[in-house]
Amino acid sequence: MNDLTKNPVMVTGATGYVAGWLIKQLLEMGCTVHACVRNPDDERKLAPLKSLTNEPQRLRFFKTDLLDEGSYQQAMKGCSVVFHTASPFTIIVDDPQRDLVDPAVKGTINVLNTVNDTPSVERVVLTSSVAAIYSDNIDALTLPKQTFTEEHWNEHSSLQHNPYAYSKTVAEKSAWQQVKKQRRWDLVVINPSFVVGPALGAAVTSDSFDVVKKLGDGTLKFGAPHTGIGLVDVQDVANAHIQAAIRPEAAGRYIVSALNSHLLEMADFLRPNYGTSYPLPKSKTPKFLAWLLGPMVGTTRKSISRNLGYSWKADNSKSKQELGIEYRSISEAINAMFAQLESNNQL
């Protein structure tokens, strides 16, 4: 096992949902973390991270920007591992190229160019997504056992169709292209499915929470679209990043997903605790209604036709065998997530 406590490690997008749990686990291991943030003076965003340790010298903040070339140089100095988690996660944007693709791709190239100039870095762990593996659930119909694996790539997304998935795909591909140009450092990629579980701190802004919020705020009270989805606990995603860093044999891509599920099952997980207090969906949305209402909530009819009624299935065996991941209960993660939304008066 590689010892991450010997040298600092760097985490981009440090105030993000996954990054917060990653930093928490790194600090608990005794690591020194260089946390990259856009505004190191934003006490509201940094407070949850600062509360994770009573040894402030082991958590240092650096001002960085995905689109500012060279801005990661100081933060990366002396680090042996770089965790690149920073990337936009939002579905509805005004300009997909500007708001999704440019930060994801140019940011990744910016970070990796700095890695090339930093001799201490031995490994980069990149947060990608299963969105880089597939575009729509219908894509699985032509696959063996109709199951996504690390061998598959998203070939159907574009700026016009599923631009978020497109941004994750081109960003990951650009990372693999970069790593082939040198031989000093290696790359391991984590491809999580839909991430659930509580956030660190009270500022809950991830799009993951928006989906869970819709289960309880009445948006889906007439039914949930029957669309397959993979689910994984945020703490397992953080752990997968660490395992990818400390295990010398870790290589390539890893699908990190605990459960092949769907929205109605997510509501079923919440029903025992919240079914009498919130209008959780109890049935599937009729296809005609989804077709009618989809565009009103930012879902195109093309996406509806390629996802509605289709299951989602992925093979997580590589993450279990090579990273040693033992997946947590999704029911517990979603209930903890919902409880946080409730306590924050966000429902």
Characterize the largest beta sheet: strand count, sense, and whether it forms a barrel.
7 strands, parallel
Structural class: alpha/beta
What is the total domain count? 1
- Annotation, overall tally of beta strands: 10
Instruction: List the strand order in the largest sheet.
Output: 3-2-1-4-5-6-9
The CATH superfamily appears as: NAD(P)-binding Rossmann-like Domain
CATH topology term: Rossmann fold
Q: What general outline do the C-alpha atoms trace? A: globular
CATH class identity: Alpha Beta
Short description:
It contains twelve helices and ten strands.
Secondary-structure map:
Layout: E1 9-12, H1 17-28, E2 33-37, H2 43-50, E3 59-63, H3 73-76, E4 81-84, H4 96-116, E5 123-127, H5 163-179, E6 186-192, E7 194-196, H6 207-216, E8 228-233, H7 234-246, E9 252-256, E10 259-262, H8 263-274, H9 287-293, H10 301-307, H11 317-323, H12 330-343
Parallel strand pairs: 1-2, 1-4, 2-3, 4-5, 5-6, 6-9, 7-8
Antiparallel strand pairs: 8-10
Helix pairs in contact: 1-7, 4-5, 6-12, 8-12
GO molecular function: oxidoreductase activity, acting on the CH-OH group of donors, NAD or NADP as acceptor
InterPro entries: Epimerase_deHydtase, NAD(P)-bd_dom_sf, NAD(P)_dehydrat-like
Keywords: Oxidoreductase
Give the tags.
347 residues, alpha/beta, Rossmann fold, seven-stranded parallel beta sheet, three-stranded mixed beta sheet, oxidoreductase, oxidoreductase activity, acting on the CH-OH group of donors, NAD or NADP as acceptor, NAD(P)_dehydrat-like, Dihydroflavonol-4-reductase
